[in-house]
């Protein structure tokens, strides 16, 4: 095998990401904007973030994911402090660069850079750290008992609950749900006994049922867990036409955009929809409207290929830590894609989650490109044997 670093790159995965990059620029350029906004501005900035993301992903690839593993606790501490800073700003304590937007303290506004969202990077940090905890636990307790399984579960919850709680309190339900998806996917492959996992699943389903009952009858718990604007989003999701002037406005326009695209779409630049921030969370509606069912199907097919390639990397690697990283990234991307597309067609409630690699936004794109860099690193370290 060649020692050349470029020979170790997964060019299939890189090509899929390149196609998503092209789709992103086309979709953002096609998004109908208000007269005070210029589409070319968003396209250029997205291109810039893709260039930066590519450099960062290549840096992660060269650095090697084992070094990231060694630094995972340091990364965790740094981003936990950043999340604590946002929480302090929410409660009136002056914190440099802390920024409130869309009713949530989720960003830092940095000069010449723009808004940076720490919770986006905490997703990657949590994958690195949970994977490390699982590997170290399995190395220490080879013959595991039920008590050892609960010990591992306790470790995972101990590192997961602080960032999860801080993100929920911002409030940012969408990112919190992604963190839960990451935690759930990594617990699923952690080697914990299935009866314990089924018990957790049953408890989760029961909790959701109780929240739904509380929502329709008492609203005691829901009013504590969810902020007012999040509750309004649920009202708009369940009955958008009843709340067409407020909470349901965006969903109704999204459904109209998706439906009017029909089979081949109306073409880029010919849209007549009014969709606030269509270049961001509702970019899938823009694609459906401009390129129709065919264009939307091609994009979903690209996402399927992306997820398949990451799962393939997890299966092929001989390193358990690399497999756990790929599993966490798969859980993160799969849930995010399903949630974003689902909320544009009323399958899921609107939570403000961007579509990976497509929606405009620096923090989301950077974190996803870091994830791609990790997968490339895992593949590069996978040794091929003559007899396997």
Q: What would you note in describing this structure?
A:
The chain is mainly alpha-helical. The chain has one domain. The protein is 68% helix and 4% strand. A 3-stranded antiparallel β-sheet has the order 1-2-3, with helices on one face. Strand 1 and strand 2 (104-110) form a beta hairpin. Helix 1 runs antiparallel to helix 2 (39-63) and helix 2 packs parallel to helix 13. The two termini are 17 Å apart.
Structural key phrases:
388 residues; mainly alpha; three-stranded antiparallel β-sheet; 13 helices; 3 strands
Task: Report a brief summary of the structure.
This protein has 388 residues and is mainly alpha-helical.
Helix content: 55-70%
The helix/strand series, from N terminus to C terminus, equals HHHEEEHHHHHHHHHH
**Lateral arrangement of strands in the main beta sheet:** 1-2-3
Roughly how many Å is the radius of gyration?
Answer: 21 Å
Number of domains: 1
Can you tell me the residue ranges where pLDDT is under 50 for at least 5 consecutive residues?
A: none
From the helix content, strand content and strand pairing, which structural class follows? mainly alpha
Number of helices: 13
Task: Report the end-to-end length measured between terminal Cα atoms.
Answer: 17 Å
**Biggest sheet overview:** 3 strands, antiparallel
Tell me the strand percentage band: under 5%
Please state the average pLDDT score: 86
- 3D shape: globular
Work out the number of β strands.
3
């Amino acid at each position: 095998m060649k020692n050349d670093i470029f020979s170790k790159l997964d060019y299939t995965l890189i090509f899929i990401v390149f196609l998503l990059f092209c789709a992103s620029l086309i979709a953002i350029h096609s998004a109908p904007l208000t007269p005070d906004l210029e589409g070319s501005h968003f396209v250029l900035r997205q291109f810039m973030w893709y260039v930066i993301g590519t450099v960062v992903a290549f840096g992660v690839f060269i650095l090697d994911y084992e070094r990231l593993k060694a630094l995972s606790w340091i990364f965790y501490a740094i981003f936990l402090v950043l999340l604590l800073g946002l929480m302090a700003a929410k409660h009136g304590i002056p914190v440099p660069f802390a920024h409130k937007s869309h009713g949530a303290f989720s960003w830092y506004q940095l000069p010449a850079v723009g808004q940076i969202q720490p919770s986006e990077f905490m997703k990657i940090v949590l994958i690195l750290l949970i994977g490390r905890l699982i590997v170290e636990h399995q190395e220490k307790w080879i013959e595991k008992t039920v008590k050892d399984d609960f010990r591992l579960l306790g470790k995972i919850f101990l590192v997961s609950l602080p960032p999860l709680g801080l993100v929920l309190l911002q409030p940012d339900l969408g990112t919190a749900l992604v963190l839960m998806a990451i935690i759930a996917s990594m617990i699923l492959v952690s080697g914990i006994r299935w009866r314990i996992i089924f018990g957790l699943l049953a408890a989760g389903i029961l909790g959701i049922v109780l929240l739904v009952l509380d929502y329709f009858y008492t609203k005691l718990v829901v009013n504590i867990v969810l902020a007012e604007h999040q509750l309004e989003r649920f009202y708009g999701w369940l009955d958008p036409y009843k709340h067409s002037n407020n909470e349901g406005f965006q969903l109704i326009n999204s459904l109209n955009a998706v439906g009017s695209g029909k089979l081949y779409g109306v073409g880029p630049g010919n849209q007549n929809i009014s969709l606030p921030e269509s270049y961001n969370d509702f970019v899938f509606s823009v694609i459906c409207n401009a390129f129709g069912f065919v264009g939307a199907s091609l994009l979903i097919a690209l996402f399927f290929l992306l997820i398949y390639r990451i799962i393939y990397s997890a299966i092929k690697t001989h390193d358990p830590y690399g497999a756990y990283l790929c599993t966490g990234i798969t859980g993160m991307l799969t849930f995010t894609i399903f949630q974003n597309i689902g909320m544009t067609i009323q399958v899921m409630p609107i939570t403000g989650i961007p579509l990976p690699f497509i929606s405009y936004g620096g923090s989301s794109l950077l974190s996803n490109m870091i994830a791609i860099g990790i997968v490339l690193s895992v593949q590069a370290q996978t040794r091929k044997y003559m007899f396997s």
